[in-house]
Amino acid sequence: MTASYRTAVRFLFLAIMGLASITLRAQAPAKSSSSSKASTYIYNVMGYGDTTVCRVYSCGGQQMIRNIDPRQTPDKHYVANYVFEVDYVDRATDSVYYLLDCTDGKYYTSWTLSNSNLQWDTQVVDKNITRYITHINSNRMEFEMSSQYGEDVTPLLSYGNLPGVLVRFTRNGNVTMELEEVKKGKADKKSPSVIPSNMGKRMTSREISNLKKQKLVLTQRIFDNDQIHWGANTDHNEAVWKRNGLEGSHERFPKDTTIHFAGGTLILKRVNFGMLPNHYQLFAELHQQSNGDAYDRTGSIFVIPTSKAHTFFEGIAFNPDSLPILYSKNGERFQGVVSTDNYDVPVELVRFFTPFGVNHFNSRVQLDGLEWEDEAYYKQEITDLAALLQEDVWIGAFIGNYDGGGHKVTLDIKAYPGAETWEEKDLEKPVILPLFNTCNVLEMAGQNYGKIFGTDSIKVTVTIPETVNGRAVKRIRLRYISTGHGGWGGGDEFNPKENEIFVDGKKRFTHTPWRGDCGTFRKFNPVSGNFWNGISSSDYSRSGWCPGTATQPVYFDLTGLPAGKHTISVAIPMGEDEGGSFSHWCVSGVLIVE
Questions:
Q1: Is residue 248 pLDDT above 80, yes or no?
Q2: CA-wise closest residue to 323 among 336, 313, 334, 311
Q3: CA 286, 289, 292, 295 torsion: positive or negative?
Q4: Rounded CA Rg of the chain
Q5: Which of 78, 77, 110 is nearest to 93 (CA)?
Q6: Nearest alpha-carbon partner for 467 in 457, 476, 456, 459
Q7: pLDDT in tens, 396-433
Q8: What SS3 class is residue 388?
Q9: Share of the chain above pLDDT 90, in %
């Protein structure tokens, strides 16, 4: 199973029945009786297309309930911070104890076994079997209990104390637990008590449920209330971490240290994620507040690939002109925006946009019916780019602004396990092929805006591998992010433009980025302009973004594209300049080859 069935049922039941805050019993477990009789009940637990085994050891009125101890199966790999859990029952005191055995100690909660508000219907199946039926919300639960074993045993303790031994549990017509075998034995005379005398720290049911989740979710803090602003002393040509020329500079970048570049508008950190199995889901969680800047700004969270001879670090350490240059038909220079045989563009994890002055300007304007939020919060799944988040990773955050106070950001990468175990094959990753990125995160160091679409398309050559991890390629996807900019009535920010994607010269896809729900986020924009007609500036629909939101990537299926070299290009009918204003487009794309 992908999770502990018993734990899931237990806490679902507690939540449904409102027992999560039940008063805990204060008495210690009673001592086991001197009876030498002992029995082990072995259950098959079915669910989610898998089957696991649960065992109940019963002796002298006390019982221990657990899945097969994972520590007894050394051939299996268990996820980081896996929590070993055990249930104990003391029939003499009518008590249940739920124990978490963690690396940093033991924690437990308890409740009264017979304390249940469920209403039961009964059906006699035969002389030994009685079926008990109840309903929780829309779920029908059936328990078949046998009297032939002479004691009361159930692994499903949250439903109360039904007489007999559970032989089959059915939910909504599906058998999810069934008694497979009963083994008779003798009690351990050296340790007659089933329940340990010291179970660790007592907690409430809610606390212990949260504790288990917190331990299983891996959180990597990247940035912690770091300032992104204009005016920091970050001369590219005097980067303190660069030594003896350019070669290998990223390897000498210090670990776990936030460093500012591009006048302070770009921050960068080197972190180590280790190796995560494929079943983990990864999310980026970003918190942003204005620290003095009142305007909506383009932001980007990105990873710098380092597998090729030249990297984006050359533009960071020296200046953007150190990167490969793409020239438009009118002679403009665009630095580092397409990948080449020996250079990869930065890969965007999240494209986000700051709202108008959240937090810093909350007291500036008061509107009836609106209460300003304290921060902008963005949470976006990035599992499809997990292959880039293994071992040493260089992660950057950019917010384009020329304000001395700028913005404050906190970034976490969170990994949620999809299963309790993993195999060696789960470490095999898709191939990520960076293609293009015109989001000019070195804007304040001189990197050009994505204006190339006014006269040209952008084109990149990419090589599709024949195999991935020794197996034939099954799926190819283009992960594409596009937002239009030009903040006046005729600018591309406020006018829908069709993006055309060509593969080997043939148009394969079209996409028109547009957000019509920007008014939803008014409470994040305290100093957005309010116009005569009642509309706020932050309410206006935009080309793929709103102030205070993250732009979701779109995906295009290129499965079937044969191995070898191909060209991928993007064309956008960008609008003309008007006075001193111009439009531009931030587009980024990678191929995910599985």
A1: no
A2: 336
A3: positive
A4: 30
A5: 110
A6: 476
A7: 999 999 999 999 999 999 999 998 888 888 899 999 99
A8: helix
A9: 74
CA distance 132 to 146: 11
Question: 75: burial class by Cβ within 10 Å (0-12, 13-18, 19+)?
Answer: exposed
Residues 538/547, Cβ–Cβ less than 8 Å: yes
Instruction: Name the amino acid, one letter, at 194.
Output: V
pLDDT in tens, 495-517: 999 999 999 999 999 999 999 99
Among 55, 33, 154, 168, smallest CA distance to 96 is for 154
Length of the chain: 594
DSSP string, 251-264: GGSPBT--EEEGGG
* H or E stretch covering 138: none
The angle formed by the CA atoms of residues 555, 560 and 565, to the nearest 5 degrees, is: 90
Residue type, 499: N
Question: Count of alpha carbons within 13 Å of 163, Cβ hemisphere only?
Answer: 8
Q: Backbone phi, then psi, for 461, in 5-degree steps?
A: -100, 135
In eight-state DSSP terms, residue 540 is: S
* pLDDT tens-digit map of 21-74: 333 333 444 444 445 689 999 999 987 666 788 999 999 899 999 876 544 556
Kindly report the number of other CB atoms within 10 A of residue 475's CB atom. 13
Extract the tokens encoding 385. 């780019």
Do 322 and 245 touch, CB atoms closer than 8 A?
no
Average pLDDT over residues 350-372: 95
Q: Residues 463, 469, 474, 479: what is their CA dihedral angle, to the nearest 10 degrees? A: -60
Question: 284: which 2 tokens?
Answer: 């980026």
- For residues 579 and 479, give the distance between their C-alpha atoms in angstroms, rounded to a whole number: 35
* CA diameter of the chain: 94
Strands (E), 504-574: 506-511, 550-551, 554-557, 564-571
